[in-house]
Amino acid sequence: MSQTVLLAEDDRAIRHALERALTLEGYRVTAVADGVEALAQAHRTAPDVLLLDVMMPGIDGLQVCRVLRAEGDRTPILMLTALVETADRIAGLDAGADDYVVKPFDVEEVFARLRALLRRTTPVTAGSAGAEPAKGSPQVSDRQLLEAAGLRMDLQARRAWRGGRELELTRTEFELLELLVRNAGIVLDHSTIYDRIWGYDFGPGSKNLAVYVGYLRRKLDEPGAPQLIHTVRGVGYVLRED
């Protein structure tokens, strides 16, 4: 069965062009013009993925994200935004979005990001993410529990803690943290992380990974506690407790 996309975009030309392109790609598309319609449709039909414009009259895309996440809806959300500043992207992640595409965009990039989000709705199984663990790296138990560097993750429930503090993570943040925890002590290069998390390497000019790592650090770090995610300049990132 075709996967369903709920598209909310107030610009008629962009909305119609995306609706046609997505339909030709094999998706079943419901297209609406604003956030009020998007929320009503999401409540009625439970789409497989949402594609939301950030700047819409009335209820904007960020507010739609916040409402759905507050209701416990974990449907993947891809944002369309003309805002390119890091702070604007962080606002989208904070609202609960899983990924974003900056306008003007190539429709093939939209397709790639949607495919990656939809692949990640498949339940995680032990050993499905990350590079081969080094000796002494954390392992997943039968209950899908993962521990490293003072972090605990329940993969089945999609919950994570640092010490006794539970972390509020988006889908992408959770999967990025899972990849790092599975490979604690191992430096993962940018290409590997892009491939494992997004299923597509967006190239050296992309700031996607740096934005997500920065946001994940903000949620992990605690005053007086060691930093857990370290940058290896020119290579990638590693999770370790110094």
UniProtKB/TrEMBL annotation:
Database matches in SUPFAM superfamilies: C-terminal effector domain of the bipartite response regulators, CheY-like
Any GO CC annotation of this UniProt entry: cytosol
GO molecular function (one): transcription cis-regulatory region binding
Organism: Streptomyces brasiliensis
Keywords: DNA-binding, Phosphoprotein, Transcription, Transcription regulation, Two-component regulatory system
Name of the gene this protein is made from: mprA
CDD domains: REC_OmpR, trans_reg_C
Subcellular location: Cytoplasm
Protein name: DNA-binding response regulator
Segments forming domain Response regulatory: 4-118
GO biological process: regulation of DNA-templated transcription
SMART domains: REC, Trans_reg_C
Residue ranges of domain OmpR/PhoB-type in the record: 143-241
Residue ranges the UniProt entry marks as DNA-binding: 143-241
Residues recorded with modification 4-aspartylphosphate: 53
